[in-house]
UniProtKB/TrEMBL annotation:
Residues 227-268 are annotated as: Disordered. This is Major facilitator superfamily (MFS) profile domain-containing protein. One of its GO terms (cellular component) is plasma membrane. It is found in: Membrane. It comes from Cafeteria roenbergensis.
Amino acid sequence: MLLAFSTWFLTNAVAPGLEAATGVSQAVIVQLTNGVQGGFILGTVGLATTGLADLLPAQLVFGASAVAAGAVNACLLFPGVTVWSMAAIRVLTGISLAGVYPIGMKMLFSSVPSARGLALGVAVGALALGSGLPHLFAASFAAAWQPVVATSSALSACAGIAVALVGGRDEVAAPAAVPTSAALSPASAPLPGEAAVAAAAPAATAADADSVRLDVAASPMAASLASPTAGQAGQRRVQGDPGAVERGSPAAHASPVEEGAAPTRGRSSERCGGVLALWQHVPSRLAFLGYIGHMVELYAAWTSFAPLLVDRLASGLNGAARTEALATASRVTFGAFAAGAVASPVAGIVADRWLGRSLTTVVLMALSGSTALWVGFVTSPAAVIAGVLLYGATIVPDSPQFSTAIGELAPPERRGAMLSVSTGLGFLVTMITIATTSLLQAAWGWGPAIALLAAGPAVGIVSMLLLYVRPEAQAMAGGRR
């Protein structure tokens, strides 16, 4: 995942050289990142609707997707490439990467069932560090952008070949059959918000360690988190609408599903109902609003790091001085991504063991949002470098905590759909904020453009504090809220 995602922010990393070679403006190059966002959304939707993630071996889907991302990315090297062909290449790169991250998460969760929270933080860290790699390459190759494209393309292809050859377990084995009475008893499947949640939490960890149901999800996090939790490992889905069966009623114990039957796949009706279910379930709605606030800020800020640093460090310089300034800007940008990559698993440990998900995300959003208010206004090279590094370290670690929270809070029969919808909408929001931030920067400058991103974490903080005081929050982080 780390190597394949070196293709995501590629054009953003080589913008100065690409601008000089092709005459495409900086603003247009920044918008090319939106092509990857859109392609990624299309790709994840395609995976969800075709079922390829389950029909084919996971390592082969991952391998083919990573190789495809590298091959498509390399097309930027063709002579006479135009802005429209670059846009098409970026969209196809995003579509290819949709087969890398969700499937990689699926394989990862199958391999380390006893440490999924930490694994999710590590995977998000891989996404962040991989996204920053082209900036490190750009610093190494100075103004030459072609070697950066070639290197990231080769790494992505090598990643795909390695995973396809090494392979791994595609799925966790279905849980062993359990007595119908135990599988369908009220105590075995507590819903968020009920008194049984706290009591069932310790048993949930052990039960979930041996099983996972990965829904065919239209998002990176959905594919990794749509596993049963809170003692639901042995539960069999009742035919018909699960939401229509009252817990404890005779119907709840009269499932026509035979013992030992394979778990039912998520149905299209459940995915279509994901938006409504996500909004109607109040705890999930609050976690979703927190996630959206986070996504308002994340990718727009990531896209702004390099051009902001170039503007502050290289403006007015020429020759060797400008080349060195551009290299410094690339190194600092990579450092910001790397800081977020290191902080992501650390934040996962803090959330799991001490603060819980609500307060961990609140602290991180307060830090990132407050940084957004000033980092675009400073002109001192030292100050802007410090600000970008701080911003990079605090803007990404809360991402896996939001997705984990939604997975923990969601009703079991809607978990996959709600995770799919939430992350899909989150990436859609990033397309809007990337475009808006670029337009505002051209009109008002970096200060106001980045400062307005703080509105996202402000909404997220309010939402997560409202979630923290609700009793349903005990379903998160083993009762730590």
